[in-house]
Design goal:
This protein has one domain (about 30-180): Rossmann fold. It has helices at about 25-45, 60-70, 120-130; strands at about 5-10, 15, 20-25, 50-55, 75-85, 95-100, 110-115, 135-145, 160-165, 170, 185-190. The strands form 2 sheets. The chain has a 6-stranded mixed sheet with strand order 6-5-4-7-8-9. It has a 5-stranded antiparallel sheet with strand order 1-2-3-11-10. The chain is globular. The protein is α/β, with parallel strands linked by helices. It binds inosinic acid and magnesium ion. Magnesium ion binds near residues 58, 59 and 114. Inosinic acid binds next to strand 7, helix 3 and strand 10.
């Protein structure tokens, strides 16, 4: 088995192999912001029956909290699965579609839910895919946005936190597939 050693150095520091991560956005702050986003989305979609499309793997934790912050509307959930990062801290720039949605989204209100937008390549790819199916409306929600890095030709409708250019893990986000289960978000203590 591939042994990746991770050590919890203190309550707010984690080491994975040579890399040290420090707590950056705490659990309470994330939960508060997710509830705010849920309320905002709920108000915007009142009277509609949208379909939320998560981008696997990273977004599943955020999506699961987000939908439970919404009570006043009926909604559906589906997923695309993309691969771009491989096992690295910097995107390969190559996007592969590993799984498509099953739902018919023609004439539906679609909300794409992402964990993090870095270069924006993944969302550009997903937007193109979704528009082929003629949805009634299309909006984007991301928990995190690396503002200085993202190069987007369209607006993001809901953004949880705007963060600097740094590598982050936890709350669904992984490093070498690990640490998605952390309740807080941690950032790498070094420049990329
Ligand atoms: P983009 O295509 O460059 O915008 O990258 C988006 C995808 O890369 C996200 O959905 C994440 O899965 C992954 N990603 C980007 N930045 C990070 C990071 O800091 N930590 C972990 N995964 C990341
Ligand atoms: Mg993702």
């Amino acid at each position: 088995m591939d042994e990746k050693q991770s050590v919890h150095l203190s309550t707010n520091m984690i080491r994975i192999e040579q890399d040290e991560f420090r707590e950056f956005i705490g659990e309470a702050q994330i939960q508060k912001r997710v509830r705010e986003l849920g309320t905002e989305i709920e108000q915007d979609y009142l009277g509609s029956h949208p379909i939320f499309i998560g981008i696997l793997n990273g977004s599943f934790v955020f999506l699961s909290d987000l939908i439970r912050a919404i009570e006043a509307i009926d909604l559906e959930v589906d997923f695309y699965k993309l691969s771009s990062y491989g096992n690295e801290k910097i995107s390969s720039g190559q996007i592969r579609l590993l799984k498509s949605i099953d739902a018919n989204i023609e004439n539906r209100d679609v909300l794409v839910v992402e964990d993090i937008v870095d270069s924006g390549l993944s969302l550009h790819y997903i937007r193109k895919e979704i528009l082929k199916h003629n949805p009634k409306s299309l909006r984007f929600c991301t928990l995190l946005l690396k503002e200085e890095v993202a190069n987007l030709e369209f607006e993001l409708d809901y953004v949880g936190f705007r963060i600097p250019k740094q590598f982050v893990i936890g709350y669904g986000l992984d490093y070498k597939q690990l640490k998605r289960n952390l309740k807080s978000i941690y950032s790498l203590n070094q420049e990329l």
